[in-house]
Specification:
By secondary structure, the protein is an all-alpha fold. It has helices at about 5, 10-40, 50-70.
């Protein structure tokens, strides 16, 4: 739309409010469906064992990164 839209005062704020309103209505309309879908899902994607293994792998890296940040500060 180019120059036409640029000549309308407040078009940016109005457009932002319009798009936020549309997104809110879409979220509201499908919220129940998404919630039901998530609550009916039984298969775990990540198990407790997976989390423990991940923590064991990442903890030393995080600690050493934090130490490096403290030393450089």
């Amino acid at each position: 739309m180019g120059k036409i839209c640029g000549d309308i005062p407040g078009i940016s704020a109005g457009t932002q409010r319009l798009t936020q309103g549309i997104a809110a209505k879409l979220y509201e309309a499908e919220h129940a469906w998404h919630h039901d879908t998530l609550t009916r899902y039984k298969e775990q994607e990540v198990t407790h064992g997976d989390l423990q293994a991940l923590r064991a792998q990442t903890t030393p890296e995080v600690e050493s990164a934090e130490e490096g940040n403290l030393l450089s500060a």
